[in-house]
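This entry is set out below.
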Amino acid sequence: MREISRDNILRAISGDQIMRVLSKENFRNLSPRQLFQFNTANPVHPSIGTTGTLYLLYSYTIELIWWLRAPGIWCWQLLRLIVFTLLMLPGFIPVFIHYLTSSSVQKNIPYGKRFRQQLDVYLPYKPSNREEGKKYPVVIFITGGAWIIGYKVWGFIMGQLLQKNGIICVSSDYRNFPQASVGNMLDDIEDSIEWVKRNIIRYGGDLDQVTLVGQSAGAHLSALALLKRMTTSEDNLRGNWDFTLIKHWIGISGPYDIERLIPALSSRGLHKRVLRALFDDLENQSPLQYLKRYKEKIDSKKKPSFPKMHLYHGTCDATVSCDHSEEFAAALLDAGIESTVTLFRGKSHTDPILEDPVSGPDPLMNDLLKVVSKVSEPPKTLQHYQPKIMLKIAKW
């Protein structure tokens, strides 16, 4: 059997070699300490280490508390989030256990050397039964979290649904505030897309079928990353990926007019001083305003190669009004970029990605599969364990 070492793991981490190193036979020969060290469920970035990670978590938590000043309304929102999570545990726990234990979810793969620059890859096959030569559509998923509490693991439901339906899903993490501003977050997202371009073929990914998906803050950041690629000269771009790599972009419950969103965020406990520090270049970090300002820079000859833009939003979204998606879709069309908008009547900010998948039905996944893989039959769904009464209380 091949010798197991930290170096072997790190060399394997960027390619399909990881599937052989982290095999069932190797796991049987690992001590509990080695199992934590080498298992991809270990969230510690190899460039940071355990001690460095704990220090960063402590220092950024203290800094975040200082920024937020723990206002009553913010504490109330946090309490509501905790209660919501507890009520949704029957639906979340089985899916999360699969995330932690499945060999088909390759977790915590570094795409850079900084803290939080890691990603998860959800494979639609077992590593031991990969079909040679077969290519799979790819989704790059950027999670939400108000630019403050985002984390790649929040994509564990979306990732497993795509996985079940024959699609590779890459859930990318990115630095959050106060460690990073929106500009730094964009750098992380662009670097993770660069990683996909360089490495996903090793997992069977088809570079001719790549879709970029973002939810909430992730929709804002991914839309902005694409728009900057469309309007910036190649000499000034970060990395080597081109917008033609992305065939479709899907934005779910996204905020696209940040200036208009600021009062709503402030009323929910996100003080304006935090937002001023978070958005270090507000005029150029609001997708709607950015598009209106720079649409003349879009090369008309390249417009046929632009990704198709698909927006989804719930009509009862109390966090980000569905007007954001409607206005952004209209601005895209005005700029000559193909776009569609779909409104889910009666749905909230999180219904399309959390409540619906674990309780059913799931209209977003129905549409998403038609876009990503052109599949017309009903999608394979998760088993539903969420009691209806607890779901109703959680949505209250």
